[in-house]
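Now for today's protein.

===
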Amino acid sequence: MSEKKTVFGIPGPLSWLHVRVVDYLALMAAAFLLAPVKAGAADLPTYTVVARDGRLIPDTLNVPAGVRFKIAVRNQGRDAIEFESLQLRKEKVLAPGAESFVVISPLKPGEYAFFDEFHPNTGRTRIVVK
């Protein structure tokens, strides 16, 4: 009587399928690990805006044109804020004491407004792109 060979419990005729699947998965994992990686948000030039007592500090950020960058937002106030730009279609709500960031795509020269929607009269800053 001959003994049937198995691979991981799969009888002989189907063992080739299992080996092919394992080879394919190993190849895909290697391709994923060796693929070039785009620069993440951690590698971007970063500008910090602090929200405190209904104000955004500083009131102006000067950034170069054509460069992707990150704005780190820190809420050091006692109230929630909504850091928002209608022009750039960005918004971020932060509880008191919270920190976060928004990534901005490369901009053309000009001025772009950000404001705190919860303090619209005093919470304003702008990005000046040159």
User: Anything to note?
Assistant: The CA atoms of residues 74 and 99 lie 4 Å apart. The mean pLDDT is 83. The helical segments are 12-34. The longest helix spans residues 12-34.
